[in-house]
Amino acid sequence: MTSAADPLSLVLVGPMAAGKTSVGRRVARRLGIPFVDTDKRVVAVHGPIPLIFEEHGESHFRALERAEVAEALRAGGVISLGGGAVTDPATRRLLLDHPVVFLTVTPAAVADRIQSGGRPLLAGDDPVGRWTQIFEERRDWYDEVASVTFDTSRRPMQRIADDIAAWRRELG
Ligand code: S3P
Predict the structure, then answer these.
(1) Residue with the nearest Cα to atom 2 of ligand 1?
(2) Which residues line ligand 1 (CB under 6 A)?
(3) Which fold has domain 9-167?
(4) CA angle 138, 155, 122 (to 5 degrees)
């Protein structure tokens, strides 16, 4: 596999609230490389995600997201993607030849993590039901891009980060 600027670069994908950001920060610290959250980059340049969805629609958001993913892959680091990035075929193609970690989580474990709002796709009165449906719709795409899978439901984020960093070092 080829990697970007940092030799230990890797990408994190997975459904909303799987722990991509909290695990990603810890993995980056362990590997001594930068952490990049592509959602945060989109927000920094274009403003809040709910507003982008509302004013321009999801496909516009996916295009902005794709551009940030491409840039992050060029620069390297531990790169955390938004949960829906894999729905975009061109974004999936960008991930070819990069080490990609798929973080999974159960609906039961996710229930506590999705209360804070800010995720337009989970708006409404059954966020866990909606989350589950969206995850099922996307599961094949996650599997398609993934080099390896880790579940975050039942173990501390620190331990999961240890395992991912060890996996990445072994990959070389
Ligand atoms: C989305 C996930 C969000 C964010 C946007 C859309 C999705 O990122 O990109 O709200 O389609 O699953 P997180 O996975 O970090 O919540």
Answers:
(1) 83
(2) 16, 20, 39, 49, 82-84, 119-121
(3) Rossmann fold (3.40.50)
(4) 35
Instruction: Inform me whether the pLDDT recorded for 3 exceeds 50.
Output: no
Average pLDDT over residues 40-54: 97
Pairing mode, strands 78-80 and 35-37: parallel
Cβ neighbours for 39, distance < 8 A, ≥ 6 positions apart: 49, 65, 80, 81, 82
Q: How many CB atoms lie within 10 A of CB 136?
A: 10
84 CA distance to ligand 1 centroid (A)?
6
- pTM value is 0.94
* Mean per-residue pLDDT, 148-169: 97
Question: pLDDT exceeding 90 applies to what percent of the chain?
Answer: 88
d(CA 103, CA 28): 15
